[in-house]
Amino acid sequence: MQSGPIQPVPKAPVEPKQRPVLFEVFGEIWSVQARLGQGGSASVFQVSSGRGSSTAAVKEFQAQPRGGDYAFHKERRVLEDIQGHKNIVTLYGVFTQHSALGPATRCLLLELLDVSVSSLLLRTTATNSLRLQQGHSLWLVQHCARDVLEALSSLHREGYVHADLKPRNVLWSADDQCFKLIDFGLSFKEGNQDVKYIQTDGYRAPEAELQNSLALAGVELDSHCTAAVDLWSLAIILLELYSGNRLKDTVHSPQWQEDSGAVIDQMFSSKTETHTAIPVSHLRDLIKSMLVKSPQQRCSADKALLSPFFSVPFAPHIEELMLLPSPVLRLLNLIEDKHLHNEEEYEDILEDMKEECQKYGSVVSLLIPKENPGKGQVFVEYSSSSDAKEAQKLLTGRTFDGRFVVATFYPLRAYRRGYLYQTLQ
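The structure assignment produced for this chain is given below.
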């Protein structure tokens, strides 16, 4: 589940079923730190254990007047069936929340995740107007595409359709350094669709649009949607990440309805890109293969993972490394070149940086390259992403020897492999 800036729990009296202050989870009291989201059937909260050493997300389902708790049982069943995949949110357990002031509610205790793709789209365009034209880097698009496709491949092999893939339902995991799928409230077994209205407007496949229209008109359905609807949704998400624009109006436009391929070609040709044309064309072809109108001819998740787009290494934008938490921090604007080649000064700087960084958490390793790539940058690996997030918040804007510190996160796997990106500006 998504995390974000922690909001204080209001002290004014509130209705417990609307904003609980405490949850009793398996005999332990967990306090609410923030409300992360609210939907038609459930609310999601960030919670911490009584000892304060653990954090998680609680999805509390509204009590059903007639009983049955259908939404709770459905999502629980799906998550229990597909547990264990690194790109799908982890279900820790289920419990019942009792209240003296209202009916008992059913809850899921879930892994706490970080920033959503929706937030990445909003925050990047808000902090840099140029992103409206440029969108995100091919590194992030590739990372998101591969992670979600691997999740869908596993989900589809188990016979499930997610049926509500959108930017809000794809979240970054700081601990696992990958994107994960959440919210399986509309999911169903292929061939046994028990939900009439699926997918969110703007990410809805043509066959789902037709099905929804027929259902609204009271027409009995004689066919069901398939896993192909998920590929359509993912393609729109990737196109939004690449272009930097929300595409709800675009996919409803006459031009898109007449020839979506031409619209996609125009979007790619109008975007200035620092990479060569070949990997960009691989991404364009991958997206087109997932936006074929006929679900029978649309690319599957397994086939999409074979795209040559995934064989090319890319570098991230610096803004992306500020938004995607990791156990590794990269500190910029700290060290002058002259200090790197004086061994005594270099050792003193290493010791000073270790001492400073250990104030914010347990430091596993610290690296200051003397040559490019990464020359003069300070890479600090903390024992946990939570330590790194605290350090990033407190170090950014600090001065060190008269220099203002810029602290970004850095991909853990790249750091451990010694791969130091020359990030895109």
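Interim note for the steering committee: The CA atoms of residues 153 and 301 lie 5 Å apart. The longest strand covers residues 28-38.
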